[in-house]
Structure prediction request, 220 residues.
Amino acid sequence: MDDSTWSCVKFCPDNYFGDFAITKKCVKQCPEAYFAEEETHKCVAKCRNGWFADPLKFRCVNFCSGEEYYADTVTNFCVTNCPFGYFAAVLHNMNGFRSCVATCPVDFFADRVSVKCVKNCPQGTFKDNISQSCVSLCPEGYFADDRIGACVLKCDKPYFGDFETHTCVAHCPTGFFGDEEDRLCVGECKEYQYFTEVTQSCSSSCPVNHFGYEEEHICV
Prediction:
């Protein structure tokens, strides 16, 4: 019913919405738990796909209002906390559209603590390009580089990859030596390499002021 004309109508006029659930009238604001749908001029409990129930505007919107709200494509609601398995993301390639996503955009990583897609992982965690998430322990074959906060295949000088801790270390643990070529902690030097006791490292040539002793492949 349209109260302005006191007549039964099939479609409500502009700025009014059909409350079919409770009052059976055209209303300016939908009742609690219902949202105004602009195209149909109806109050709906769930917005159509591509539209999201905005609790601040009480309308179906295609862009959630308020920086703390994200579009949940599972429920079609604007939410402050994304459902399990989803992360809050700002999609810059879609004009800053805020949405809950299962996989974070390129160059962003899923932080399971804040449940958000982040550019840089929190302290104590590292960017893992394989899982595209923040991890406390890098996957097999990768090493945590504290300087850049990421898992790397090869540590940069002067660090070496420690297989035990999966981290880049300045000094290899007891019984291991730093391979200057592969940047890894190894149990023994390669056949063609020389061992330098001072630096506890293996290399194809000796450091300045040291000389290679061919017979034992050590730098003296």
Residues 1-45 form one domain. The chain has a mean pLDDT of 90. The chain has no helices and 24 strands. Residues 86 and 102 are 5 Å apart (CA to CA).
